[in-house]
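Shipment paperwork, digital attachment
Item: protein structure file
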Amino acid sequence: MNTSNDTPPDSSGLDGQDTLSQLLREPSHTYIETEKKMEDVRSSAWVCSITGSMGLLALLALWLGIIPLPISLGTKYMSSVVLGGLFIFFLVIGIKSFGEMKSLKLARAFEDALSPKIVTWFSEHYSSDALSSGMDESDISIEELYYLRSENISRVMSDEFGSMSQDYMDYMIEKIYQMYFPD
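Attachment content:
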């Protein structure tokens, strides 16, 4: 009698639990447009900076007696240390977010210049037939056809424009694919 596991492995060679844990460890490559990132970072910068500043001002007003609270000195110290640390943390996050906005502005300029260039280059040099060349569309499922066309777009894009981040490349592949094959 064979003591090894008699169940055949799945196509990836991993069982269900290993596959799930591998997926959880792998980073997501979902591209988020730089403009949307900038909106999120801008709002975080302002909210954290204002919250931190107002909180520190409120603590200062508490210690100066402008805000009279009938609490013991020990409670005042304890709450000041905890809340002061929290408000300083908010202020640091706000300042870092303002710094991150500078790098996102550079990334947005790069994206704004490169994305139309890639789309224009593809429309000038390739047709939908060229991206599907060598494929017998009647014998291939829609999913396989999508995969093969995407691979062609990826190969051509890498050859012409060099290496770029995987998430940005996936975003551009999808954009070009939708341009040529909107159905």
